[in-house]
Amino acid sequence: IVQVNGYWLLKGCMCNVVANKLKIIAAIALTSAVSWAAAGYAYFNVAKGDIAATLYPLPPLTIEKLGSTEGPELNSLAGKPYFINFWASWCVTCQAENIILHSLVQQGIPLVGIALKDSEASALQWLKSYGSPYIINLQDPDGVYAEAMGVQGAPETFLIDGDGNVRFHYQGLLQEAVWENRIKTILGSLSVRNER
Fold it and tell me: What is the end-to-end Cα distance of the chain in Å, rounded?
């Protein structure tokens, strides 16, 4: 028996007490680390990126064309899958994404561009400088339509099916890996259904 801090303990008990306390502390630390890691994964991979496959009706596209830009009418896209991309001249990321969008257009993918909270002059100048990958250019200067779509910023991209439903929503830079691993698969399944 030994006396420690005024308490009488059996020899060897102090080691057990300390060991138990260390186990509890380690368990709490591990639980916290796992929780933070899970939250971080969800934030960066879901909230800031892939909103995943979804299904809800596209709000009616009642917004105006961007300036005097030429292109087909929206009703020409009826019955076909296409993309809607929100962009802006003030969006630095949109410059990098524009290159990727051009490559997608070369694969025959219809793309509708919506200039978000931008002046018409600035948006048109941006398209002139970087080139337009869009077959139809629209504008949402007040962000009213973007709000109806659940858009939080630019760039954001939506996949619309032939029935006019939103099937995929992506926030941020649309990278090649996202196209190959997520969007291409969904788009392929839509094409098969439309052919049937």
Answer: 85
Rounded CA Rg of the chain: 26
Largest CA distance in the chain: 94
Query: Which is nearest to 112 in space by CA: 75, 85, 72?
Result: 85
Given a cut of 80, whether residue 50 has pLDDT beyond it is no
User: Which residue, among 79, 139, 94, 130, has the nearest Cα to 112 in the 3D structure?
Assistant: 139
> In whole angstroms, what separates CA 138 from the centre of its chain?
20
Written as one letter, the residue type at 45 is N
Q: Which helix (H) or strand (E) holds 72?
A: none
Looking at the whole model, is its pTM more than 0.85? no
3-class secondary structure, 7: strand
Q: Does residue 83 contact residue 111 with C-beta atoms inside 8 Å?
A: yes
